[in-house]
Amino acid sequence: MTNIMTSTVCLKPFFMAFFHGFFHFLHGFLSSFFL
């Protein structure tokens, strides 16, 4: 149980960066599409 929690905490920054880049790309795509 502790190992799973530790791995999740270690991977959290990676998922945060991934979703940040994904939403940034999605926002830019929608902006260019509607404009």
From TrEMBL:
Q: Where are the transmembrane segments?
A: 14-34
Keyword list (alphabetical) reads: Membrane, Transmembrane, Transmembrane helix
Task: Indicate what this protein is called per its UniProt record.
Answer: Uncharacterized protein
Q: Which organism is it from?
A: gut metagenome
